[in-house]
Write a structure and sequence with these properties.
The structure is a single chain. The protein is an alpha/beta fold. The chain is 33% helix and 21% strand. The protein contains five helices and five strands, in the order E-E-E-H-E-H-E-H-H-H. It has helices at residues 70-83, 101-108, 128-139, 147-162, 165-174, and strands at 5-15, 41-50, 57-64, 88-92, 113-117. It has a five-stranded mixed beta sheet with strand order 3-2-1-4-5, sandwiched between helices. Strand 2 (41-50) and strand 3 (57-64) form a beta hairpin. The longest helix is centred in the last third of the chain and has 16 residues, at 147-162. The protein starts with a strand and ends in an 8-residue tail after the last helix. The model has no long low-confidence stretch (mean pLDDT 84).
Length: 182
């Protein structure tokens, strides 16, 4: 598919329960993260886009308050097709949701969206996985009280990555893709 935008797509979930990472503290004063043990979550689907000429990278995302299913995948693909002109080559993992009947029907009625799957379990070759690494690092040790606060934290992190071509390029370079641009 010549002249297509390439999109690396993946999903993740973020809980109100903090991700704990090593941090700096005064000797003898171990940091304590106080939080209410609630498993409320925000599910995120995102995609790193590479323009047809591979000169510009982009980042697109959508939040959901439930697990990402066929309807959310279709909504995201519709969102992408409205914001990115021309043909789209979506490369994603073999998640059963991506192969659902509803998604297949949607794709068959939208010929400018073409999909390919990554082989087996190979997160190391999906550049979007490294967006999640940035996101989860930025959200680590945070103790949001509610989903709105967590959402603002996630949006801030995603915008930080989106605005930086260097960070987006680092996500592509960190993947084990054989053709990546250095």
């Amino acid at each position: 598919m010549l002249g297509a935008h390439i999109l690396f797509v993946d999903e993740t979930g973020c809980l109100l329960i903090p991700t704990v990472r090593n941090t700096w503290a005064v000797r003898g004063k171990t940091p304590i993260l106080r939080h209410c043990y609630r498993r409320d979550r925000i599910s995120v689907i995102s995609g790193i886009s590479i323009s047809a000429e591979r000169e510009r990278l982009g980042l697109y995302w959508r939040f959901h308050r439930k697990n990402i299913a066929s309807d959310e995948i279709i909504s995201f693909l519709t969102y992408l097709s409205r914001h990115i002109p021309g043909n789209l080559m979506v490369i994603w993992d073999g998640c059963p949701t991506h192969r659902s009947r509803k998604v297949k029907e949607f794709l068959s009625s939208h010929p400018r969206i073409y999909t390919e799957r990554f082989p087996g379990y190979a997160p190391e070759i999906n550049p979007d996985e490294f967006v999640w690494a940035h996101l989860k690092r930025d959200a680590s040790n945070a103790t949001p009280d509610n989903l709105s606060t967590l959402g603002r934290l996630l949006v801030k992190s995603l915008y930080r990555v989106k605005r930086s071509q260097k960070l987006l390029q680092s996500c592509v370079n960190a993947s084990d893709l054989p053709w990546r641009k250095k």
